[in-house]
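Hey, I'm writing a tutorial for new members on how sequence and structure tokens pair up, and I'd like a real worked example in the thread rather than a made-up one. If someone can provide the structure for the chain below, I'll link this post from the tutorial.
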Amino acid sequence: MKLSRYLAIFIGIVTPLAETVRRWSTWRENPPALFDDYILGAFLLYGAWRVGKDVRSGQRFLAAAWAFMCGMAYYSFFDQVHRYQSGLSDPAPISSGWVAVI
């Protein structure tokens, strides 16, 4: 449980920061594309906090946060693959291929 909690804290902080850098100049074009990662980060941090407070009752929140993150990652990965195959550029300062790999 400790590893899951620490990974949730790490990903809950890094994901919104990376998305902010990625969409810094283009967030006005599609605001939900930026803010969904803030929700993801908050959900992971909340789940980690609840597990730190009480492991037994916090597990369901952390599991739900990981499920939400996996669903978001699934969509993001296949969207990046589609963008890469279609030749569409990504707003990130790196290529769509590298965004999919990350």
